[in-house]
Predict the structure.
Amino acid sequence: SPWVGTELELLIAGNWTTYKSRVQQYLQMLAIITPYAQLELVYENRSEPKRNMSLRYDRRSEQMPPLPREIKHHPSSVNNIIIRQLIERSNHKTITKFLTNELSSVTPNLANRIVKECGWDGGS
């Protein structure tokens, strides 16, 4: 069957000798966590062809992982922009319901405590 996938070609200026091992290590780690992908690196040194190299990690699995599912934001990871977006798409009528249903790790007791400490009236 014809090749299907993504090919990325870059021209990088810099000290390849210094970063070569880091790039190789990154590709190795990427190959470990993506056994369904074939990864290949072809390095061509235009000024010194003897330094050319290639690296290939073959696919080890034909099975694709399940699609990721969306997870709720943790309260410590949100800012005012994210909160605004969550509020705009939310149908919850009270702050307590919003906090418990739109954020992870917020229990009803914690949401009630937040509402009380902020001085909001009854979670509305």
Summary: The mean pLDDT is 90. Strands lie at 39-43, 53-57.
